[in-house]
Amino acid sequence: MSLSARNPEYPIDPLFVERWSPRAFTGEPIDEPTLFSLFEAARWAPSANNAQPWRFVYARSGTAAWESFFGLLNENNRVWAAKASALVVLVSRKTNLRKGDTVPTPLRTHSLDAGAAWASLSFQALRSGWHTHAIGGFDREKAALVLDVPEGYHVEVAIAIGRQGDPATLTPDLLARERPTERLPLKAIVAEGRFAFEA
Ligand SMILES: Cc1cc2nc3c(=O)[nH]c(=O)nc-3n(C[C@H](O)[C@H](O)[C@H](O)COP(=O)(O)O)c2cc1C
């Protein structure tokens, strides 16, 4: 399936169908101002109580920190993420210290809010000529240890950032999967009035 086959049912900004998660990256370096413009976009995401529970820890390829980030990934993700330009680990704070309080209260939406920030980062990456690929297949416990994530934080996801590369560099099985995915139809995910979906 090509990008042009991603047909929205209603008019939307092309950004939403143009974002997808390739695995073929060029391996070229990403400079910090470029990377930080992606974090900047993430910073403006909405969150409950404006608690902004997201935290981004990153390593750029070729830097001292890269190997420790790369070593967190499952083997099947290492195969392709080796050519990413940056790896980011997104962490969220599970509690919120509200103004005037001395004890933090649980923040039920910490993962939801972090997800909004990840989406913003991903769309900005596309606008800036880069691609992102979220990675759930990594060792979260090891990430907490290696990256000094304190108690009270949840390791959410890793994110590979890179420039889209030549699919021919991928292994045959990954090459076969190197295409934009489809989506459920709107009627399968939206209902008026009650939860009227087929199981
Ligand atoms: C939380 C999360 C975890 C994911 N984990 C992996 C992963 O470990 N390995 C991988 O290759 N892709 C991973 N993906 C990518 C998804 O498979 C991909 O986003 C999904 O198939 C939709 O395709 P698209 O992003 O190209 O639109 C992950 C995506 C998300 C959001």
UniProtKB/TrEMBL annotation:
Q: Which SUPFAM superfamilies did the record assign? A: FMN-dependent nitroreductase-like
Where the record annotates domain Nitroreductase, the positions are 18-163
Q: Does the keyword Oxidoreductase apply?
A: yes
Report if keyword rRNA processing is assigned.
no
* Classification via Pfam families: Nitroreductase (PF00881)
What InterPro entries is this protein classified in? Nitroreductase, Nitroreductase-like
Q: Which UniProt keywords apply?
A: Oxidoreductase
Q: Which GO terms describe its molecular function?
A: oxidoreductase activity
Matching PANTHER family, A to Z? NAD(P)H NITROREDUCTASE YDGI-RELATED (PTHR43673), NADH DEHYDROGENASE_NAD(P)H NITROREDUCTASE XCC3605-RELATED (PTHR43673:SF10)
**Family stated for the protein in its record:** Belongs to the nitroreductase family.
Name listed for the protein in its UniProt record: Nitroreductase
Q: Which organism is it from?
A: Panacagrimonas perspica
